């Protein structure tokens, strides 16, 4: 039987794949612009090229960091797939009276069952009393000058509290 301290969440694999592909395309376009600028036969003054190159590199730094972060976060999420038993027990629990929107879950049992049909798109987080067990209630320590906002809960667990700069 699944413990009460198991959280089952969708990873939104299709969305993550689309976002990664979009970022990949953006990086490729910026990379092509950079290669054109670095070509010795490209037109423009040295100072114009340097300004354009600095702008492109600054943008690449942001987009590549976002790509890497999303890739790593999604990889962590995929490392915790929900077991068939957990998914089955959750479906049974959701079909019981009082476990739908009226119980404060915010969506109907039918909607819950629909997303659970994509069981390959579902991960679990095991919570526990053990210090080694991850907890959505623990705040991940971060330095003041890290440039990131927030830090507690789910976002800290998956290290996804950062924002695109």
UniProtKB/TrEMBL annotation:
Residue runs in coiled coils: none
InterPro entries, per the entry: DUF6594
Domain DUF6594: 5-125
Basic and acidic residues: compositionally biased ranges: 130-147
Region span, Disordered: 124-153
Name the record gives this protein: DUF6594 domain-containing protein
Source organism of the structure: Cladophialophora yegresii CBS 114405
């Amino acid at each position: 039987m699944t413990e009460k301290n198991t959280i089952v969440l969708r990873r939104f694999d299709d969305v993550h794949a689309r976002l990664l592909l979009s970022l990949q395309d953006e990086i490729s376009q910026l990379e092509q612009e950079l290669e054109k600028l670095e070509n010795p036969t490209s037109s423009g003054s040295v100072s114009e090229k340097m300004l354009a190159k600095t702008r492109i590199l600054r943008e690449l730094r942001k987009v590549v960091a976002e790509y890497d972060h999303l890739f790593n976060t999604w990889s962590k999420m995929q490392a915790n797939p929900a077991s068939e038993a957990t998914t089955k027990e959750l479906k049974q629990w959701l079909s019981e009276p009082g476990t739908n929107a009226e119980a404060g879950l915010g969506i109907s049992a039918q909607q819950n069952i629909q997303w659970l049909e994509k069981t390959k798109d579902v991960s679990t987080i095991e919570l526990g009393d053990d210090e080694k067990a991850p907890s959505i209630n623990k705040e991940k320590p971060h330095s003041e000058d890290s440039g990131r906002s927030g830090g507690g809960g789910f976002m800290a667990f998956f290290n996804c509290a950062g924002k695109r700069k």
